[in-house]
Design brief:
The chain is an alpha/beta fold and 309 residues long. The chain is 36% helix and 23% strand. It has a single domain, classed as Alpha/Beta hydrolase fold, catalytic domain (Rossmann fold, 3-Layer(aba) Sandwich). Strand 3, helix 3 and strand 4 form a beta-alpha-beta unit.
């Protein structure tokens, strides 16, 4: 029944104006997030900043678990939403939880959305945010030698694409990438067949691609489809989190396998019984949600240790 409800809500948006489709989707996203994320009080230090990027500026929201003190490691977070949805406000509770529990600064990145801003704008914005964080490390109270990236779905794509760009552009260096149900290959739109439910879950990437890409051929670019990159060596260690009933699970595993083959330390976890975007169900399955969250926090704490390696 759960899967059928998801499918029923996944109707075509072709006839709906973009502004209406986005507003409706944001309302649904807000209900989804507030229904699943346990609320968190604001932290002692939270501030929005403007980051200059090519052709304009983007906002980032910086969460610090303590008002002042020694420089802390930093986790850059890229929200999901198929490259055309999502705001900073949707993920306040998540970012606060990671900041407190991993004892790090979290910087949530409000990259520009498609279709107003086509590929590779979101990727370029994401890398610019990483550069800005390092350039302003002293002001932000960040240790520039202990920075990680992470995100969910499209945000997972942008996190590992940012890592690719950092490798190819001589930095900044990263200590970890946390990829949650990541989009890694926009060139394929394989559905997931669930035999015991007698249904087929579409990947939804037709919507992503229609909004994000100017030309279908752009899906072959590694900055859109990191799974297609010829060389994945030299990337930071990765935690790749997939969900059993997610059409993107196969490409998430394929990306984890490619990273391993390239010599990158990888932990790949496929969470049983879960579907795309349902990983933070703190109000519905608190023990499962806690295990999921703690796995991410544990990986961050380990990567941020000053005596690592």
């Amino acid at each position: 029944p759960l899967f059928r409800a998801i499918l029923a809500s996944n109707g075509s948006q072709d006839e709906v104006p973009l502004s209406e489709a986005r507003a409706a989707s944001h309302k649904a996203m807000e209900q989804f997030v507030t229904g699943f994320y346990a609320p968190r009080d604001p932290l002692p230090s939270e501030a929005d900043h403007s980051v200059p990027v090519a052709g304009g500026s983007i906002a980032v929201r910086v969460y610090c678990p303590e008002p002042a003190g020694p420089a802390l490691p930093c986790h850059l977070y890229f929200h999901g939403g198929g490259f055309w949805l999502g705001t900073l406000d949707h993920f306040d509770a998540l970012c606060r939880a990671v900041a407190v529990d991993a004892h790090c600064v979290v910087m949530s990145v409000d990259y520009r959305l498609a279709p107003e801003h086509k590929f590779p704008t979101a990727a370029q914005d994401s890398y610019a945010a990483l550069q800005w964080a390092c350039d302003n490390a002293d002001t932000l109270g960040i240790d520039p030698t202990r920075i990680s990236v992470g995100g969910v779905s499209a945000g997972g794509n942008l996190a590992t694409v940012t890592a690719l760009m950092a490798r190819d552009r001589c930095g900044p260096g990263l200590v970890l990438q946390v990829l949650e149900v990541p989009v890694t290959d926009l060139s394929r739109q394989d559905p997931l067949h669930i035999a015991d439910e007698g249904i087929e879950l579409p990947s939804g990437k037709d919507v992503y691609c229609r909004h994000y890409l100017s030309d279908p051929a752009e899906a072959l670019d590694p900055l859109a489809s990191p799974l297609l990159a010829q060389d994945l060596s030299g990337l930071p260690p990765a935690l790749v989190m997939c969900a059993e009933y997610d059409p993107l699970a196969a490409e998430g595993k394929a990306y984890a396998d490619r990273l391993k083959q390239a010599g990158v330390p990888v932990e790949h976890i496929c969470w049983p019984g879960q579907f795309h975007g349902a990983q933070p169900m703190a109000k519905l399955i608190p023990q499962e949600a806690a295990a999921y969250h703690n796995r991410i926090v544990g990986a961050l704490r380990q990567a941020f240790r000053k005596d690592r390696g």
